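Input/output pair, single chain:
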Amino acid sequence: MVFDWISAMVYEPDNTRHFHIVPIGDLRDHEPDPDCWCNPTENDEDPGIWVHHAMDKREEYERGRMRH
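Output:
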C-alpha cells in the first residue's frame, strides 16, 4: 500500500510562512491550518512546519506498527 503526502506553504497576513505536510487521499480532507480537525503537530526542531495526522492511520503503516 502506498500513501502520498504533499507539502503546502501558507503565508499569513504578516508575511510569516508555515509549511504543512498533509496526507493526500485521506478519509477526510485537511485544511493547511494549525486548527485543522486532525490537530496537526508543529515540528519541535523546525518551528513553522506542521505535520497533519491521517484518519486512515497511514503513519502506523509507515512506521511498521501496522501491517497491510
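The longest strand covers residues 4-11. The two ends are 7 Å apart (CA to CA).
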